Amino acid sequence: MRIPGEAEIRALHERYAPSPEAFEVVYTHCVIVWRIAERIIETAGLDVDAELVRAGCLLHDIGVYRLDDGERVPGQYVRHGVLGHEVLRDEGFPEEICRFCSRHTGMGLTRDDIARQGLPVPPGDYVAETGEERLVMYADKFHSKTRPPTFVSADLYAVHVRRYGEEKVAVFEAMRAFFGEPDLKPLVDEYGHALV
């Protein structure tokens, strides 16, 4: 499988971003998620394909550009994962790369979640399955594209995800126990985004 390099991925972001501001927010977030995942790989000594994780981190939010100028449109933001999957599929990427988009939202979306919450997502199970998919999903939880962008502590994310059900908290806590908590302080200092 051909894994795209950083220059190719950046060019893809630049092509799909509706504005320089949207590019800056989304691409910077994706880079930060990769930096978090990289720290987790090193600290936990994980046996994952680091190049595949890098590509997954850098591409996981490409679907955000298909929404209103990268804004979080109420009720529609949940679609960004499946939209990103479509973008990458249309670009000719293999399914293993496309899945990082559709499999990172929250702690995974199941067919039941979609029906119960009336989500505007095609019925299906969008749950991280491989070690690489799980790591991208987990690393993504520690940085938010809010305005201004912020780093998110594990404790705060656990509180946030509780509104989607105790089973989602359990999934997050299992990942937390497996992957450990990344040291965000160096990235907080480097990027100047607050830690909440």
Q: What proportion strand?
A: under 5%
**Structural class given helices, strands, pairing?**
mainly alpha
Tell me the helix content: 55-70%
Shape: globular
How many strand segments? 3
Strand order of the largest sheet: 1-2-3
Could you state the oligomeric state of the chains shown? single chain
Task: State the separation between the terminal residues, measured CA to CA.
Answer: 38 Å
Number of helices, where a helix is a run of at least 4 consecutive DSSP H or I residues? 10
Q: What is the averaged pLDDT score?
A: 95
Cα gyration radius (Å): 16 Å
Order of helices and strands: HHHHHHHEEHHHE
Extract low-pLDDT stretches: none
Largest sheet: 3 strands, mixed
Question: Can you give a write-up of this model?
Answer:
It is a single chain. 57% of the residues lie in helices and 3% in strands. Strands 1-2-3 form a 3-stranded mixed β-sheet, covered by helices on one side. It has helices spanning 6-16, 20-44, 50-59, 80-90, 95-102, 111-117, 131-140, 154-161, 166-179, 185-191; strands spanning 143-144, 150-151, 194-195. It has 10 helices and 3 strands. Helix 3 (50-59) crosses helix 7 (131-140). The longest helix is centred in the N-terminal third of the chain and has 25 residues, at 20-44. A hairpin with a 5-residue loop joins strand 1 and strand 2 (150-151). It has 196 residues and is mainly α.
